[in-house]
Amino acid sequence: MSAPKARALLATLLCNPNQVVSTEKLVDELWPEGAPSGSTNQVHRLVSRLRRTFGVDGRDLLVTRAPGYQLVVDEQDVDASLVESMVKAGRQELRDGAPERAAALLRDALVHWRGPVLADVPASALIEGEATRLTELHQVALEVRIDCDLACGKHAELIGELRGLVASDPLRERTWAQLITAQHRSGRKAEALKSYENLRDTLATELGIDPSPQVDQLRDALLTTEQQRVVERPAAVEPTGQPSGPGSPAPAQLPPDVAAFIGREDELARLTGVLRRAPDTHAGAPVVSVISGMAGVGKTALAVHWAHRVRDHYPDGQLHLDLHGFDAGTRPVEPAEALRRLACSLGVPAHRIPDGVDERSALLRSELSGRRVLILLDDAAAAAQVQPLIPAAPGCLVLVTSRRDLLTLANTRPLRLAVPPTADAVRLLNRAAGLADPAATPLAADIVELCGRLPLAVRMAGARLRSRASWSPAHLAERLADRWWRLHGLRADGKTIAGAFQTSYLSLDSQQCRMFRLVSLHPGADVEPRAAAVLAGTTVEQADRLLEDLVDAHLLDQPTAGRYAFHPLLRDYATTLVADAAPDATHRAALELPPVARSLSRHGPTGSEGSRPWHHRRSTPTS
Question: Alpha-carbon distance 505 to 500, whole Å?
Fold first, then answer.
């Protein structure tokens, strides 16, 4: 029996002190990639091994309770629980005006850290989440202790320590603010201004953003006669740029904003309009907006950019959770696990988080009651994955992105995201290619149209021009004229357009997959249910239902009622699947189209296939 598995078992139980952890959950945590045969028996043997390690008290500490095991411990026996209580007490002492006592408590708490949290435990969803939470707790405890020392006048003594902290985490604004404050109070004004410049340059280079308004106020205070009034309050600077009480940082989990965001003015206005028309923040229900669209259309970029625009309205924090609904190789996050992560982000100790989805959902609603928090839920697979995560607090905003419309999610404001207009797509291409002049790329309009104006494809095309000094726009356009290359040759970080589409395709059932493939054989720009029924050999009613399903999944558009059309790249992808799918009688009948129509449906409206026949340029076979 391996020592790593024994450590993983103990860590899982310690993350859930005094709670019964089911054998099934232990198996999932110990073998996240898939449990081997006999895994339950291996858990039993690991438990026996731990009991022997504990000695004579082993059976009293590690108790068998259906449906699994319970580790019975006092708070003083678990470092994490002990430290959480000490940090809470230290914060209270600081709020009560006793910084010396607060600093002593926080120093005692920090002694319990002896290196990275759970570093020698094999990774799992639970372990990684708990390690992240405790690492953030360590950072907060350290920052609050420094606030206490600043309040006690230990300015010069802190400068060396703070320089080391900003060197190890140069994007953490609060630590920079403390360094600037310590330097200023030590009479080292020039160094304080230099630290501000270093922070500004780092944020601009790494994230493409400016320092928060609170840090700018510290800089302005150094240059005005009101220095002391502003600089005396360093603890108010949080990573979000939001004001908060001393030692009480709000979660600030939004991904970095998109530098120089392009276009989408109408969509941003619609989202902001929803917020303005929402009920009073002390009555009614939370605002829930769903941004849906096809793979690669820019849902996450829009959501993150708008979330940064409105975050000042949510001073109690901003939460972010990637639900991995359509992430190849990663299973969608289960609602129970999503609720656990959100609760941990709000500072709920692991031992207070119950097991059931309903119980965790109720806990989340309780934690958010009376608070104004923004929750960004990215890449949702289905409404059932999101519904338990919706708070009841009327002051909250929930922003969801998905490749599906999530029609059954209650009280939502939907926004279906289409591809941008040509002018914005050209600006995006030039930005990705590193060209400042919008007219600098000849054939730019042709290139973005070959990309179907899909932002993911446009960015990949621009990146190709930027990284291939020998490529001209004409050479890129020639390559993009080949359907196989559009789908598989455009790639970034190992990802392709075909790969992005495949995760959407694999989420369909067998009838929907078949309709998706067959409709691509229709030679016209769009198709109606009657023609689709002929192609699929089914009834008009059944064809209509399947076409509507594909619209809900953003694999077909509906330009007018009763008419259905492909995005050009999705048509390319669907036609490649026809060659890979097992032929049936309907396939053979559909392929017996007139020669001209058959040519049109194979090559589509976006260009020729180059010198090699399209059926030699297949995607990876898909069932």
Answer: 9
Sheet with 397-402: list strands edge to edge: 318-322, 374-380, 397-402, 287-292, 412-416
**Per-residue pLDDT tens digits for 349-359:** 888 889 899 99
Going through 427-562 in order, the beta strands assigned E by DSSP cover 491-492, 495-496, 557-560
Q: What is the mean pLDDT of the chain?
A: 80
Closest CA to 348 of 364, 372, 370: 364
pLDDT-derived band at 200, boundaries 50, 70, 90: confident
- Bigger pLDDT: 600 vs 167: 167
529, 519 contact by CB (below 8 A): no
Could you read off the pLDDT of 215-268 as tens digits, one per residue?
777 777 776 633 344 444 443 333 333 333 333 467 888 888 876 788 898 999
Q: Which residue is listed with tokens 């900003």?
A: 166
Count the alpha carbons within 13 Å of 293 in the hemisphere toward its beta carbon: 23
CA distance 344 to 452: 41
**Is the CA virtual torsion 308, 310, 314, 318 positive or negative?**
negative
pLDDT band at 323 (very low <50, low <70, confident <90, very high): very high
| Residue in the structure block whose two tokens are 């059926």 | 615
Average pLDDT (137-154) is 85
Strand order in the sheet with 68-71: 20-22, 68-71, 62-65
CA dihedral 395, 401, 405, 411 (to 10 degrees): 0
Q: What are phi and psi of 179, to 5 degrees?
A: -65, -45
Cβ neighbour number for residue 202 with a 10 Å cutoff:
16
Q: What is the pLDDT of residues 420-472, one digit of tens each?
A: 999 999 989 988 887 765 555 678 899 999 999 999 999 999 888 888 888 88
* The overall pTM is greater than 0.70: no
φ, ψ at 38 (rounded to 5°): 80, 15
* Residue whose C-alpha is closest to residue 473's, from 429, 524, 511: 429
Q: What is the pLDDT of residue 89?
A: 85
What are the b/e assignments for 124-137, b being 16+ CB within 10 Å? bbbbebbbebbebb
Give start and end residues of each alpha helix (H) in 123-188: 125-151, 155-168, 173-185
SS3 content of the chain, % helix, strand, coil (to 5): 55, 10, 35
SS3 123: coil
Q: What tokens were used for 52? A: 């022997």
Question: Phi, psi at residue 366, to the nearest 5°?
Answer: -65, -45
575 close to 614: Cβ distance less than 8 angstroms: yes
**Helix and strand numbers, DSSP H then E, in the chain:** 29, 12
Q: What is the DSSP string of 277-330?
A: HSPPTTSS--EEEEEE-STTSSHHHHHHHHHHHHGGG-TT-EEEEE--TT-TTS
State residue 168's pLDDT score. Answer: 86
